């Protein structure tokens, strides 16, 4: 077996691809291969190995496996060296004697990826590589071509990621489902939780909760265990306790909502007065009827019942019934 050493030319301006810079991808791809990072203008010492390679960020797809296969190919064909993008792979002895390769390695992994379409194709290949590795580790990914899971994300065994879903810098725990066309970024998705055609950013979804379809959870929100967040519900910088339900068409902003509370259709947590954001606190097992406005700052006590179409501007005591509607009038045409 021929020995091989790898130099990686570092570059702070290397493009970010699927969560990592092109240089970081080369370092990760090096695996168990002995390697050293160099600055762009730094000279390298020729190592005491049979071959050595110099790789630049222009070829982020190259791995140790690729280099070893090229060494075998070169041995078979009698080549002393090959260009790999803007780098090279050469026999150390030949390089000592002044040899510089002019023959280019014509493989997909060796294609230049510096801008435009070629860069996009390289990133697509890296996304596929991550998806395939996740599937090998026990994730369920029906279509590795269409999902976008970046290198900063962790998927436990038993996670399902459906076609056209995106997962970035997130942890997804066992049994969770990331549905088609969902976007999960800087988030944690708990065991057996479901995110269905929804967006979750900078937030946590606890075990067994369901989000979506068409929901938006953002800005350090926490959706508690077993919660049900339905279609066209937005949760912003809020904490929802265990078993909270907001089935459809609601906005919950800057709030703490106690466990077992029901947030009806069309409910708005009015958190902004035009100058400042204010907080709302809702206790446990509260019923908030459809089309209710909670005008912050306001507190609703445990077990309270807020009737539909009520605007709440003052604190509600525990167990109270609140109703605030204008009397409907009917007038006949003259």
Give a structural overview.
This protein has four helices and 34 strands. The chain is an alpha/beta fold. The strands form five sheets. The protein has a 15-stranded parallel sheet that branches. Strands 9-12-15-18-21-23-25-28-31 form a nine-stranded parallel sheet, with no helix packed on it. Strands 4-1-5-7-6 form a five-stranded mixed sheet. The protein is elongated, with a radius of gyration of 29 Å.
Radius of gyration: 29 Å
Instruction: Kindly state the number of beta strands.
Output: 34
> How many domains is the backbone divided into?
2
Query: What is the first-to-last residue Cα distance?
Result: 102 Å
The number of helical segments is 4
How is the main sheet built?
15 strands, parallel
Specify the overall morphology: elongated
Mean pLDDT across the residues is 94
Determine the CATH topology of the largest domain.
Answer: UDP N-Acetylglucosamine Acyltransferase, domain 1
> Uncertain runs with pLDDT below 50, 5 residues or more?
none
The CATH H-level homologous superfamily of the largest domain: Hexapeptide repeat proteins
């Amino acid at each position: 077996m021929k020995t091989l050493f790898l130099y990686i030319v570092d570059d702070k301006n290397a493009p970010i691809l699927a969560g990592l810079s092109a240089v970081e991808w080369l370092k990760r791809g090096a695996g168990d291969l002995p390697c050293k990072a160099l600055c762009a203008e730094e000279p390298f010492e020729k190592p005491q190995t049979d071959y050595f390679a110099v790789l630049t960020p222009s070829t982020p797809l190259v791995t140790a496996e690729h280099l070893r296969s090229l060494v075998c190919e070169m041995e078979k064909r009698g080549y002393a060296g090959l260009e790999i993008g803007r780098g090279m792979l050469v026999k150390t002895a030949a390089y000592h004697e002044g040899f510089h390769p002019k023959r280019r390695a014509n493989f997909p992994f060796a294609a230049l990826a510096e801008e435009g379409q070629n860069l996009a194709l390289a990133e697509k290949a890296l996304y596929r590589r991550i998806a395939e590795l996740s599937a090998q580790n026990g994730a369920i990914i029906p279509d590795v071509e269409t999902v976008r899971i970046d290198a900063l994300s962790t998927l436990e065994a038993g996670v399902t990621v459906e076609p056209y879903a995106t997962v970035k810098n997130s942890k997804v725990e066992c049994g969770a489902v990331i549905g088609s066309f969902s976007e999960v970024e800087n988030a944690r998705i708990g065991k057996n939780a479901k995110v269905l055609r929804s967006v979750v950013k900078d937030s946590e979804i606890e075990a067994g909760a369901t989000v979506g379809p068409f929901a938006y959870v953002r800005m350090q929100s926490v959706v508690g265990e077993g919660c049900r967040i339905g279609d066209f519900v937005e949760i912003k910088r809020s904490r929802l306790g265990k078993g909270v339900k907001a089935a459809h068409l609601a906005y919950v902003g800057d709030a703490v909502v106690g466990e077992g509370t029901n947030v009806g259709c069309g409910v708005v947590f009015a958190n902004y007065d035009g100058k400042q954001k204010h907080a709302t606190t809702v206790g446990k097992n509260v019923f908030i009827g459809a089309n209710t406005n909670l005008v912050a700052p306001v507190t609703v006590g445990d077990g309270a019942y807020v009737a539909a179409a009520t605007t709440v501007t003052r604190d509600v005591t525990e167990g109270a019934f609140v109703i605030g509607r204008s009397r409907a009038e009917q007038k006949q045409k003259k």
